Amino acid sequence: MPKPIPTQQLIDSLLKGDRLALARAISRVEDDAEDAARIVQAVFAHTGKAHLVGITGAPGTGKSTLVSALVESYRASGLTVGVLAVDPTSPFSGGALLGDRVRMTGHSGDAGVFIRSMATRRGIGGLAKASAAALLLLDAAGFDRILVETVGAGQAEVEIASVADTVVVVEAPGMGDEVQAIKAGLLEIADIFAVNKADRKGAARTVAALEMMLETGGASAQTILHHGQRLEMGAAASETEAAGGWSIPVLKTVAISGGGVGQLRDALEGHRAWLGESGALAAGERKRLDHMLQTLVQAELLARMERALSPELRRNLVEKMQGRQIDPYSAAADLVKKL
Amino acid sequence: MPKPIPTQQLIDSLLKGDRLALARAISRVEDDAEDAARIVQAVFAHTGKAHLVGITGAPGTGKSTLVSALVESYRASGLTVGVLAVDPTSPFSGGALLGDRVRMTGHSGDAGVFIRSMATRRGIGGLAKASAAALLLLDAAGFDRILVETVGAGQAEVEIASVADTVVVVEAPGMGDEVQAIKAGLLEIADIFAVNKADRKGAARTVAALEMMLETGGASAQTILHHGQRLEMGAAASETEAAGGWSIPVLKTVAISGGGVGQLRDALEGHRAWLGESGALAAGERKRLDHMLQTLVQAELLARMERALSPELRRNLVEKMQGRQIDPYSAAADLVKKL
């Protein structure tokens, strides 16, 4: 086992952009190590510079390949890129499926790219807490662009909308009817749509369907839906609208050959510029920090609950419940009283 | 507006199997109404009889059609069926995509079938709490079989494994590589695999791939993986293993024409019988009640947090965070101290 790097040295090295220090620091927030809070506290003043891009979509759309192509495109224009692949799909094994694939794609010799994957390890809220902290660390280490990749569908999309400045939703041709239905949810978080595998049959139809969905939403409904997550903060929403809406582009990409990836990068840079001009960037950051605050408070409360509930007490209550001597609501009230 | 039914009358009617009372009672737990806890408390003694079947899988596999065909098959053998379609994919709009489709499939005139959909409405834990309570209500109303349908992938699968006696994972041919990867997670919760749309090209290959995955897991690894969620309770796992493992079948179905659906129903009944003989049924119920207890305690703690955090206090902290005057961890610690 390598000797652990002292916390202060880790912090100093990370702020200089040292990759090993960054990797270790992420591990410490992931493991909820004793010095995790101190590390985040120390680097927080150096965050807020990176453009945070969320990339999500259903399985089979080729998200990982697109992320890899996008990294290449950013690198070609001289920008450094951090990638966080968040995998909420394997809670039991703790595997990190996305990251393994991303890692294989040939950026391993490039100091301007840092790739990390993260899977569900703990209970509710654990992944959200660790990934929010990891994004701060990547930001503080000086990466210009940070890509957060997550597999849809479900709660993961909500999370990505909460941590990113800009959200790319990836679609692919011919994914079946049910996918269409789910788009209703994705529509609400997408800043950019990428129809990947656009050389396949049905790509034009998928693009047309998305464009129709965006149009039929109508200009104002679209803005409301699109910024649904920002409406939670009244001020943010009005700032955004005052500056004029963002028109959501539907782009075609063929990630495997790099087709359309330059245009996607341009659209991302365009959205970033729009965010800055419209005031939405600052509003989005407030939203993100508020979300992180909630996540941390929740995680702390749940951790306290775990510590307070002795296994015996819990087992005892469960047995009573099974015997129908006590109902779940009364059992829960009992436990809450004991906290 | 119809006059609200008094709580006691609602409870009495629900226990007699009255559909309207059941529908109203589910709405009250969903809305977290004042009498929600009282209703669940009153009916809890009458629960524990239904076979709870979870049905999950990626978008596009035809889950909803399969659920509908399965309902028909159960009805043909004289069993009553409750269906709860849980949709965690549309947190913003509160829409209930699955339910709308299920409802259209022609069981509406049958008193032996009750279909309800439920979408994410509140924050973290809200859907889990409401759906666990709704299952108890369906059980108390006397349905023989209860199907819980949820769209994968992600956290939803963990939830379904926590609330069901038996989990069916639905696959379909030709869903791409990434789906294969996700199966690693699904393998851990499946009691039965259904390869739906089995009349399509590639069905045999999908079946073979799943069977190989089950075999290469090896008999003991398979049992461990398969009962991964039950290992959390030591007693449950050993009981299950002592009685001999369940061999996970991979079945072909063509839900739209009813092909293979009888065999799926037989496999479900077979698993139910196995659960009873092996002691896994009682262990599973303990696991489920323990999970519900945790869900309720978490929901209560989070609700308290929401009430305790004034918007001003939160806004104030977020502004300080944005100005880098305070970091998220210190801000969260501040808030927790105030609770």
TrEMBL record, chains A, B:
Which SMART domains would you find in this protein's record? AAA (SM00382)
Query: Can the keyword ATP-binding be found in this entry's annotation?
Result: no
The UniProt entry, under SUPFAM superfamilies, shows: P-loop containing nucleoside triphosphate hydrolases (SSF52540)
- Tell me, what is one Gene Ontology molecular-function annotation carried by this entry? GTPase activity
Question: What Pfam families is this protein classified in?
Answer: MeaB
Domain of life the protein comes from: Eukaryota
Under InterPro entries, the record lists: AAA+_ATPase, GTPase/Isobutyryl-CoA_mutase, GTPase_ArgK, P-loop_NTPase
Question: Keywords for this entry?
Answer: Chaperone, GTP-binding, Hydrolase, Nucleotide-binding
AAA+ ATPase domain: which residues? 49-174
Q: Which PANTHER family match?
A: LAO_AO TRANSPORT SYSTEM ATPASE, LYSINE/ARGININE/ORNITHINE TRANSPORT SYSTEM KINASE
- Which family is this sequence assigned to? Belongs to the SIMIBI class G3E GTPase family. ArgK/MeaB subfamily.
This protein is called: GTPase PH0274
